[in-house]
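Here is the promised in-class demo. Please do not try to memorize the tokens; focus on the logic of going from shape to residues.
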């Protein structure tokens, strides 16, 4: 029977999903790793055997010899894809017969990148992501299967999971985060894909195949884009500096704020999150300030006295969900 675990971003991306994916792959029984949404707007920072990698397209399964598929919910920049293949090969990662692109994934073309560059209003990553999804939905897009150069990498999801490997164990790796989801994020300050557990199912996995949903959050929030997000208080500039909050794709400064538990609770409920990982707890420790919001919208700040109190409050708040805190960029 097909089994699927799904990793979703709980905030605005950059929660450390790459690290969690990498960790689960190192422990788990997975036969496949599937990226289910987004394109090269994403930047996943992964530490593998002491080496730092930033990937945009290729799922982390490749580091463990697990078949890694860029799913049909994704959009692909062919140049960046081949750059990444080369980067991995040069670093000695064995990628032979490990990297695939779903035949029905869409391809980011030159005019997508060009028109995205004009889109300064939202502060997009200018990678052609939105215009490519736009063409997909107006039925003007081009699918991966139509490009001869991609032929060695093309895969049919139905054949792979229902004919050849009906007992596959799949780790679905999300990009961005639920607060950037096209339907559930703060529209129009969103990305153009589905960043939720449903987004993973859209890649050909029935809801009944989903075993666990691992939500990845940061112990504070960050956002990259045009809307005002960071409150005017120096403590957030300090947090930004200590946390080295710069975009992995664009190098832009990430705006910072405290974690919001009510916002997270909404995402937990709407996605059936079973485990919740809070990353970068070490950054708050260095900052020495333990704050959170517990009220969606009103933004009433809640101050705690110590790391233990902060973690205990969060654990109690998400009763019934496995809650894990991590304070290392390389492990959980
Ligand atoms: P787009 O996805 O490039 O269209 O950008 C739309 C919004 O999503 C912008 O605010 C981007 O900064 C944000 N965004 C897209 N991908 C990521 C990501 O991987 N991490 C953080 N923010 C992202
Ligand atoms: Mg990122």
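The designed amino acids, position by position:
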């Amino acid at each position: 029977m097909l089994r699927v675990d799904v990793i979703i971003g709980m905030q605005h991306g950059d929660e450390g999903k790459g690290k969690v994916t990498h960790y689960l792959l190192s422990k788990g029984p997975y036969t496949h790793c599937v990226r289910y949404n987004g394109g090269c707007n994403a930047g996943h920072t992964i530490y593998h055997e002491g080496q730092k990698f930033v990937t945009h397209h290729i799922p982390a399964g490749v580091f463990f010899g697990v078949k890694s598929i860029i799913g049909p919910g994704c959009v692909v920049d062919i140049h960046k894809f081949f750059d990444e293949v080369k980067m991995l090969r040069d670093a000695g990662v064995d990628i032979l017969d490990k990297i695939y692109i779903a035949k029905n994934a869409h391809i980011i073309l030159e005019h997508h990148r060009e028109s995205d560059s004009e889109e300064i209003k939202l502060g997009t990553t200018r990678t052609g992501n939105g215009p490519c999804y736009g063409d997909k939905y107006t039925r003007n897009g081009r699918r991966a299967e139509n490009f001869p150069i991609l032929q060695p990498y093309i895969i049919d999801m139905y054949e792979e999971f229902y004919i050849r490997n009906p007992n596959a164990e799949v780790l679905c790796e999300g990009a961005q985060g639920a607060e950037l989801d096209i339907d559930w994020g703060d529209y129009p300050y969103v990305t153009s894909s589905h960043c939720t557990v449903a987004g993973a199912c859209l890649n050909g996995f029935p809801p009944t195949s989903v075993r666990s949903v691992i939500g990845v959050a940061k112990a504070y929030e960050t956002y990259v884009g045009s809307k005002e997000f960071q409150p005017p208080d120096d403590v957030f500039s300090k947090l930004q500096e200590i946390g080295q909050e710069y975009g992995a794709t664009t190098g832009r400064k990430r705006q910072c704020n405290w974690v919001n538990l009510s916002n997270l609770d909404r995402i937990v409920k709407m996605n059936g999150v079973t485990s919740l990982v809070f990353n970068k707890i070490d950054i708050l420790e260095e900052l020495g300030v333990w704050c959170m919001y517990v009220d969606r919208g009103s933004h009433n700040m809640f101050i705690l006295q110590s790391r233990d109190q902060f973690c205990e409050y969060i654990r109690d708040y998400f009763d019934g969900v496995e809650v894990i805190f991590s304070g290392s960029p390389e492990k959980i």
